[in-house]
Amino acid sequence: MDTRRRLNKELGAATGVLAAVALIPAIVTNDYWLGVIIVAMYFAMVAIGWNLLSGYTGQFSFAPATFGMIGAYVTGLAGYHFNISAILGIPAAVVVSGVIGLVLGRIVLRLHGPYLALTTLAFAEVTRIAIGNSVSITRGDLGLNVDAIPISRVGYFYLFLAALFLVLLAVYALLRSRIGLYLQAIRDDEIAAASRGVDVVSWKVISFTISAAIGGLAGALYAHFAQLVSPELGLLSQSGMIVSMVVIGGMGSLVGPIIGALIVYFLSEFLRDAGGYQHIVFALLVIVFARFFREGLWGFLEVLRVAPKPAAEFSAKSSAVSERVVSPREPSELAPILRIEAVNKSFGGLKAVNKVSFDVREGDIVGLIGPNGSGKTTLLNILSGHYRPDSGIIRLDGRAVQTLGPNKLALSGLLRMFQLTRTFRRLSAFDNLMVAGRALGLTEKDAEVRAAALLDELGLARVAHLETGRLSGGQAKLVEFGCCFIAPPRVVLLDEPFAAIHPTIKDIMAKFIVARHAKGQTFVIVSHDMPIINELCTTSVCMSAGEVIVTGRTRDVLTHPDVIESYLGEQHGEPAHS
């Protein structure tokens, strides 16, 4: 299912849940239980913010409750020390929380995995301890009195419900936009996202900022409802409860955090007298859901409601996929579009790339060959910005680009396909291409038209709506291949595009390359498939032990004695075949 249809369905389900919650005051008149539901809605707001960061962007933070605490203290301190009302205190809490999230995000979001989680954990504990120890300002563990908003308990109920619905709509609108596509692409594969033009760090910081601002809003509302805030609001156990709400409800869905917050907080009320056993129950639930129901309750209900359909069989439009690929034109005589000058890269004492120099002329198909470990993929990683060379210059259209990152190089027209297929597994094939198209500067309409045309040309129209994680390996490889052409590239780098795929898909890819080459497209292809290199490539470069040993016309390179000796074996006189 494509992203927008899925989001529409989840918004409908979440709206239905909130509509049912809206009827509760007509049934439940007990102030205590109304208060329980109000607090559950506070947790639901914070959980939605954390889900945006972790479920949709893939960045795990241990500080969701911390931003709720920050928001609560901002509005509380504004009223306590400066007699500022909630009308100004609540927006101030949102702004301050967002700014802190922005600053923290800029610091920590270049980290990954456990390092990011531990850094946010340290921030959470330092913030809580600092607030607790600032007795002259915050009253420390005694708690800070906060003025109530002059409305009834039912009024608070509908205030929280309205705020929760607005947060839900805001996150829904964000996820339906190109930003939402970028965030989900980052979640699935940061390297692939950067290679398709997405500024990974900047969008992660934006997600962190929005998540923090949502937490600040929820905390500020909670402070005026509870009329007392303390550092306990930012305890690690509170963040753990928020994480468990999202995991149990359904991470990466709009409705999951709401379902999870209502269920988990009600369960916590029933287990309040159980002491420490409450946390044991939550931990066991998280383990069970993480192990057996990874999509949470919402995902489980979806599986029960609609059995997943198998992926459609591959269907190519090409009428002659079995024909021999057309032989390439002569090497281009145009000026070099990509120039590599004395590039070096070492890992410790190993020289993976050693003084590599060659030109790629506009309109050429350059084959980059050599035995395993010769430095071909390392060189492609340097050309695409994933490694920075130790020395040397790389020029694209005459401009030195060796210091640019992957997304900047993609925006400059240098697109990359990886040896191990990199797609956004939880996005549809169509949305995979949309990520690349929008990140590379196409309008939404142009990107949609180009994506549909490419999927049709590559024989993927029937599976365009399916998540790429459900496609065959060859189909997923074609999706990644198509991403390189959604916007007109200057140079396309293909790393083993023909490895381990069905011959039909191999032929489609080869014919596509020939067709684009006829229109002047430039390629650099790394491959061990010598017949396809011989048929496709106008010129070739052979590397061995990190160095270029031969360059020239492909047929001349493949019959060169040094190439045969270092890579292809002792076969003289004819182009070698693997």
What is the fold's blueprint, element by element?
Blueprint: H1 3-22, H2 24-27, H3 31-54, H4 64-82, H5 86-108, H6 113-133, H7 135-138, E1 144-145, H8 153-176, H9 178-188, H10 190-195, H11 200-226, E2 228-229, H12 236-249, H13 256-270, H14 277-292, H15 296-305, E3 336-347, E4 350-361, E5 365-369, H16 376-383, E6 391-396, E7 399-400, H17 406-411, E8 414-417, H18 429-439, H19 444-457, H20 473-483, E9 491-495, H21 503-518, E10 522-526, H22 530-536, E11 539-544, E12 547-553, H23 554-558, H24 561-568
Parallel strand pairs: 5-10, 5-11, 8-9, 9-10
Antiparallel strand pairs: 1-2, 3-4, 3-6, 6-7, 11-12
What's the short story on this structure?
It is built from 24 helices and twelve strands. With 578 residues, it is of the alpha/beta class.
Question: What are its keywords?
Answer:
578 residues, alpha/beta, Rossmann fold, elongated, 4-stranded antiparallel sheet, 12% strand, 6-stranded mixed sheet
Your description of this structure?
It is elongated and about 85 Å long. A 6-stranded mixed beta sheet has the order 8-9-10-5-11-12, with helices on both faces. The longest helix is centred in the middle third of the chain and has 27 residues, at 200-226. Among the domains are: 3-235, no CATH class; 336-413 and 489-568, Rossmann fold (3-Layer(aba) Sandwich), CATH 3.40.50.300. Helices cover 56% and strands 12% of the residues. The protein is built from 24 helices and 12 strands. Helix 3 crosses helix 12 (236-249) and helix 18 (429-439) crosses helix 19 (444-457). By secondary structure, it is of the alpha/beta class.
